[in-house]
Design goal:
It is built from eight helices and no strands. It is an all-alpha fold and about 170 residues long.
């Protein structure tokens, strides 16, 4: 079994990760499960360092963005459902300002719509997810990314190689 060493933060705690895993109703060994979330978290933290994004919102996005998917293929409303789900967790699992909640809601709602413009924190969220496209056989394209860091050939290649690694039978707990 592959294991992940999760660096805890104010947001990323074992109980919250387990809560998100329990909310996910599909197989975690699929394209959108725990392994994907951890690679998106890695990407998001990397991008946050250089792009001056809000780490709390990026980490929340990484853990929540696919929790409400209903299938592995096309599910155009999963981002909106994730944003609605995040609203129910606010004040219970995390505290954010109204402004931060707006950014999180935007990032979650539109993360698979292909947008490239928005607040830097929203852009980092979207890029963190897109950099993991290799898991579904796609190489991320720089013209569909938002941030200069994500568009860097080195970052693109490193993220692509990371995304190719299969994560079979991931145990999220």
């Amino acid at each position: 079994m592959p294991s992940f060493t999760i660096t805890n933060s104010d947001i990323v705690t074992q109980p919250f990760v387990e809560h998100c895993c329990d909310a996910y109703q599909m197989d975690h060994s699929g394209f959108h499960g725990f392994g994907h979330w951890m690679r998106v978290l890695h990407n998001g933290r990397l991008l946050t360092e250089t792009e001056n994004a809000n780490l709390k919102i990026v980490e929340l996005f990484c853990l929540l963005h696919d929790t409400q998917r209903h299938n592995e293929r096309r599910d155009p409303l999963h981002g909106k459902r994730a944003a609605q789900y995040a609203q129910t967790l606010r004040g219970v699992w995390f505290d954010v300002s109204d402004n931060e909640m707006e950014f999180l809601t935007e990032a979650l709602t539109y993360h698979s719509d292909g947008y490239t413009e928005g607040d830097i924190t929203v852009q980092v969220c979207w890029d963190a997810d897109r950099l993991d496209l290799g898991r579904v056989g796609l190489r991320p394209r720089s013209d569909r990314l938002c941030t200069g860091t994500a568009k860097s050939p080195f970052v693109l290649e490193e993220a692509y190689q990371r995304s190719l690694k299969q994560q079979p039978q991931i145990d999220p707990k």
